[in-house]
Predict the 3D structure of the following.
Amino acid sequence: MRKVHIVGVGMVRIDRYYDKGYMQLIRDAAVSAFNDVKSYEPEAIVVGNMLSSTLYNQDSLAALALDAIGFRGLGGLKVEAACGSGGHAVIVGYSLVASGLYDQVMVVGVEKMSDYPTSTITSALAQAANAEYEYIYGVSFPALNALIMRLYMLKYEARREDMALWPVRMHEYGSRNPYAQLRNRITIEDVINSPIVSDPIRLMDSAPIGDGAAVIILSSEDVARKLSDTPVEIAGVGLGSDGLDLSSREELLNPISIKRAAEKAFRMSKLTPSDIDVAEIHDAFTITALLSIEGLGFADLGESWKLVKDGRFAVGDKPSVNLSGGLKARGHPVGATGVYQIAEIAMQLRGDFPGVKLDKAEKGLAMNTGGVGTLTSVVILKR
Amino acid sequence: MRKVHIVGVGMVRIDRYYDKGYMQLIRDAAVSAFNDVKSYEPEAIVVGNMLSSTLYNQDSLAALALDAIGFRGLGGLKVEAACGSGGHAVIVGYSLVASGLYDQVMVVGVEKMSDYPTSTITSALAQAANAEYEYIYGVSFPALNALIMRLYMLKYEARREDMALWPVRMHEYGSRNPYAQLRNRITIEDVINSPIVSDPIRLMDSAPIGDGAAVIILSSEDVARKLSDTPVEIAGVGLGSDGLDLSSREELLNPISIKRAAEKAFRMSKLTPSDIDVAEIHDAFTITALLSIEGLGFADLGESWKLVKDGRFAVGDKPSVNLSGGLKARGHPVGATGVYQIAEIAMQLRGDFPGVKLDKAEKGLAMNTGGVGTLTSVVILKR
């Protein structure tokens, strides 16, 4: 298996860009990535995106991305795994290089969500659920997660104020990340008193709606040093899944798709959860953060909320989790999020992440999931 | 680079399945593929599809596919490159195996188009064009191809009856393919007198609207013989692109995306166009067939229509092209088509294609494109 390195990353601040379309966002992120490498000559592009077909009548997004950055003739395709599209796109990019097909591949994560009212976005996001058994009955994506959050709190006797600790921490970190969409600090009371989205999920338990684009340039080992003085190796990758509709799952609080993806990535990297210095995990809702931590093996089932309460996973702990502010505060332009996460971990390992960072991190992990933990990717990086 | 083999294929007849959804079509094709191998244990699934988000509010199609065939926990993702999604999905599947990530990967191409009126489908297919510069002005996908057909006929002095030869031949082959949607024979007069879709494209120049699913099981070389007595090697793959909107292209009759994809696949396989015994090419419209033949290097630019008129590319010629009946008669369930093509070529090389077939074919090629030759994949197979 050829080793694959991340040689350049770029991103735009996540925001509501009413004046920018896909092309402008992709171009801005790509220019930032090109400025991060010594030279570049990508041979193919992989785009992670969820909503362009539904919201903008735009398929062939890979061709649009190539037009945006002025490249002609390159190979291109889009990867979709709902809100997990970005992480899956990076793994496809990884495979295109590791297989020997290409020496340099560009991965773009991009999403536009701001141009539509929230009801339209909520409806589009529900496409991550089963259309025939869930979507057409009007269930929303927050509602599906609310069922799980309620079950979690009941089974593990977690109180509402315990569950509020995560978003408070995320906003603290987000306030120091120049790429974050939300940079205001919040309190436990702010979370508990915020409007109900779908009981028990409140607005401050939920990732915001925003636009963003992030770019990662991947290369084979033999050219990595020519392109970057600080290449970051992709040491392990893994994919996993669970039943699409919740009614088909064996156990709602056992995140098997995250477990499967993590097992594969850890086995490949010959690392264990205790080796990881820094991680970015998928916390579209507070409950998602807890199940992600448990699925990745950073905590036993039902234990993560207690560890968060004890101050675990904060900056300086091993692992330090979501120093970017996570989906909650950095933002969650759905199909782009996984690419942001992996770019952030690469910057943490290089030591140049411009927000809350570790002094010395050698091994990092990014985990992104589409649906209610339905299609999961895990990527492990090391210096 | 690890060698990758096709060890099993399965498909359903392309038709208008008003009584079957995605899950039923995928299951039927998968069962057929499972019956084609000695054993199977796929570790990941790649789904090629264009329209599920737009028409059926269904993202996370990879998870739906896994539910359909009763697998849990596997990796899964969807690949989209408009009408070229299927071929791109096979190349992603190839990479997942060639990279060493997985030993067995299942690729599914699936599309449902029959449940909606033609106007809805025409609108959805136009998403393969540029949404901002083409789609919103009401241009249809046939209209974009009609511009190119008109230019081709003018520049190369091809007459309407010359252009009718291709669909006549495709219906002849389709009539003998049990998986083909259209199995009626037609004449030059039928083509010329069929209703105008977008002048000069007539109904009989156009692929039909239909539903279908095809499945390919890929494996690494070391397990291929355990799974199949007749594995077919993937000897070369390539991707290419051209500008998304036609107004941005340098030359409308020079199919650079097909050329780039073909160059890459031929270089990798160490073969040339003259080595190919049998090919399946993308003929969504008659003009697409001609540009595909030229882009692949089977004819010089502007020459393919004359060669077709001379009887070239018919069964027994080298290469024999579209013995399935092509998109025109076998059918074109858009995101599934590329998987059908590659399955058909694998069967031709194995000698068990149930329609028009060659006595002895050793090297085959499948070419699939999304948009107006925008995102192209080429896959070369050999026994």
